[in-house]
Amino acid sequence: MHAESRKPDLSLVMPCYNEERAVAYTVWKLLVAFQKSGYRLEIVAVDNGSQDRTGEILRSLARRDPSVVPVRVERNQGYGHGILQGIPYCTAPWVGNIPADGQVDAEDVVRLYEVAASTSGDVVAKVRRRFRMDGFRRKIVSISYNALVRLLWPGLGSIDVNGCPKILPRAVVLAMGLKSKDWFLDPEIMIKAHYMGLRVLELNTFARMRGHGLSHVRTSTCWEFLRNLARYRFTQSWKADLRPVTEPGIKPSVPMLETEQTA
C-alpha cells in the first residue's frame, strides 16, 4: 500500500497495550477501507507501554506505509494517557480515538468520518455500539453507567458515552484541554463537548467480540468512573481547562464558566 502525498483527512489515535495479535489486522483493515473510499487516513499508533511485540509490529507497519505513525510510551499510565501522548502527532483537520481491538468495522469508521466531515465542525461524531456481544454482568454495568451519566447530564446527547471511535475537529480537541490519563478520557470528551455546545452525532454499529487479547477494564474502573463523574458534575475547577475555539469555520465556543449549561 502506498501513502499519498496529500495531507490526511483524518487522524486516528490508537492506543495499543499488549495488542500484538490484533493490531496489524485492525490497522490494515482501516487503511484499506479509507483508501477504497478515497480518503487519506493517518493512524497514530501508540505503543502504550506494551510488554509484548506490539511496538515491533507498529514499527514494521510504519516502514510499509508512512500513514502509520508509531509512538512509544515507555510506562503504561492508562488508556487515556496513551491517547493524550498521540494527539500532538496528529496532522489532519479531524482527529479521533479508536481502540486497537477491531470491534468496530472499518467501513463503519469511514461512514462516521463522512458524517462528521459533512458538518460545519460543531460536532462530536461517535459510534453507538447498538449490538454488543457482552455477557449479562457487563450489560448491566454498561446500562447502569450510561443511565447515571444521563441522569447527571440530561442533555449530553449520547446513550453510549464510551462508544469509540469519537471524531472531532483537531482545533476542538486542543481547545478541550483533555487531562484524564485513565478510562475516564471518553466521558471527559463528552462532558466537555456538552459544555462547549457541540452537537452529538451517533452512528449505530455492531460491536464485534475481541478476536484476540483481553479487555483491560477492571472492577476498579467502576469506582474510578464514579469518582470522576462526581468531580465533573459537582465542581467547577475543571472548566478552566477549556479554551475558545479560534479555528475559522468552526462554531463551538466555551460558555461562561460561572453558569451551568442545562439540557
| Number of helical segments with 4 or more residues | 8
Question: What's the story with the biggest beta sheet?
Answer: 7 strands, mixed
Number of domains: 1
| Beta content | 15-25%
**Series of H and E elements:** EHEHEHEHEHEHHEH
Compute the average pLDDT.
Answer: 88
Output the strand order for the largest sheet: 3-2-1-4-6-5-7
> Which fold name is given in CATH as the topology?
Spore Coat Polysaccharide Biosynthesis Protein SpsA, Chain A
Shape: globular
CATH architecture: Alpha-Beta Complex
Structure class: alpha/beta
CATH superfamily: Spore Coat Polysaccharide Biosynthesis Protein SpsA, Chain A
Distance between the termini: 47 Å
* Helix share bin: 25-40%
Annotation, overall tally of beta strands: 7
Low-confidence stretches: 253-263
Radius of gyration: 18 Å
CATH class: Alpha Beta
Architecture overview:
The chain has 263 residues and is an alpha/beta fold. It has one domain (10-241): Spore Coat Polysaccharide Biosynthesis Protein SpsA, Chain A. Helix content is 36%, strand content 18%. It has 8 helices and 7 strands, in the order E-H-E-H-E-H-E-H-E-H-E-H-H-E-H. The chain has helices spanning 23-36, 54-64, 79-86, 106-117, 136-152, 170-176, 185-195, 220-234; strands spanning 10-16, 41-48, 68-73, 94-97, 123-132, 166-169, 199-207. Strands 3-2-1-4-6-5-7 form a 7-stranded mixed sheet, sandwiched between helices. Helix 1 (23-36) packs across helix 4 (106-117). The radius of gyration is 18 Å and the shape is globular. 44% of the residues are buried. Residues 253-263 have low confidence and may be disordered.
